[in-house]
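Objective 1.3, modelling of assemblies. Example input:
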Amino acid sequence: MTAQLRRRLRVALLVAIAVLYGLSVPWYRAGGSDTGTLWGLPTWVTVAVACYGIVAVLNALAWWLTEIPDHPEDGD
Amino acid sequence: MTLGALGVVGLGVYLVLLIGIAVAARLARRDASAGDHFLAGRELGVFVLFLTLYATAYSGNSLLGYPGEAYRRGFSWVMSVGFMMSIIVCFHMLAPKLRPVAIARGFVTPGDWVRHRFAGERGEHPLRLGVAVLMLIALANFLFAQLKAMGVLTAQVTGGLVSYEVGVIVLAAMILFYETIGGMRAVAWTDAAQGILMVVGLAALLGWLLGDAGGISALTRDVAAMRPDAVRVPDVTERMNWASTIVLLGVASVVYPQAIQRVYAARSGVALRRAFALMTFMPLTTTLVVLLIGLAAIPRFEALGVVEADRVMPLLLGIWAEAGTLQLAAAAVVFFGALAAIMSTADSVLLSLGSIAAEDFRHRHRSGTDAALGKGIAAGVMIAMAGLALAARDVTLWGLIELKMELLIQCAPAFLLALHWRRLRADAAFAGLAVGCVVAVVGVMLDAKRIGGVHIGVIGLAVNLTIAWLGSLGRTTSR
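Predicted structure (tokens):
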């Protein structure tokens, strides 16, 4: 995988993580409403946990793609 | 044997073990330099680095404060899983750029970065001092929270055989001895063991609680029956607070001095990114588990009346220990895992505090930070915070976290913006930091800690960034 492709993939993953963070908060539900349960938890909680689970996987991938050089690049 | 008696015996054994580890770490040191004492000779590999990051991030706040918040707020505390994960996401903004410069220049303290980045600029000195003062306030606050947590946990789990006051004093003395003798090497070694202990113990406690409640569905039903608001969708203010907390904790935690110093202490960049990749899963195995534990306390304690938030976890451990011999042993494992995590966090805080106090207030950089001076200052602060922990017991751990983060987040532009935007000027960054702090402090003093659910510190950061940006526009940079 080329360095440029790694960088682009990493950025795409970080953007996806930001979107998932936005979705994890139940903006789309009426405050005080009872949403029923999904997999034993209130539905809005299950959605949040699922978002964070996906974030964990994407973030691990993003770190896998991240270059942390042990020497400063030219110009730094 | 009761948990109280087992707790006292185990505590004695544990303290002896700590002395042994500190002495072993002392014997393993290469030299008396600050780099060896404060950064373990920059030799932390993936496994130890991961566990030391883990044990440092998941401290007394997470183990005692978070179950209490889950108990108070209900299911909306699922936000804690998000904000603990956001810390590892936000490290993308810091570690890849800071690490290579830090290694090349031999940084030991966060202030070394400020000194290097803004060298020769007007405003560098006040900016470095401002950052150092905020970090010291945050570290002292953090230390206070750990001491408080140690006292609460020890008193509860030993059944009062060791009082809160004795717990604070004895354990604070042990930490001081341990940090002075062993440095970061000793901290990292014990972190590795306690990290494992903590994950295993929490999973066992959750398993027992869920088994006792009849599963997650039954737990949710019980919570809904006891406190219907705890399962309902939070209102707009609480949702805004959810988003705000993710920003506050994510950004502020990245500029934690001890977190920055672990970026410096990694053996290599590869070890660092692998440790972060592992760390990103830990909120699912720790914070989510702690959330469910706190929720399980609602049906148990609601009928008893209001339970002090920070005592939820110790009370649960006490009930668990009475369920049988196996449960008693497992409760003891959780207790010592939690105690070890708290003590280790306090160790790390003391290390950072000593290094910043010894180095970052100097006008000029000296080769070789004075480790002895740092240790002396750390000892003074430890004694002061132990005294405070004995006197001020009515503040919650979560309250302390929020207060600390509101100020610490104001340091973020000096690191995160400075790493990514070459035009940022020291005087503009300092002006932003100063105004951001004023906003946060005035908000706290006027009891306006949140506006529409948004933390005053996050609002202060927005003002801070705007000033830093506007103040740097249209000016050339020498770098």
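DSSP finds 21 helices and two strands in chain B.
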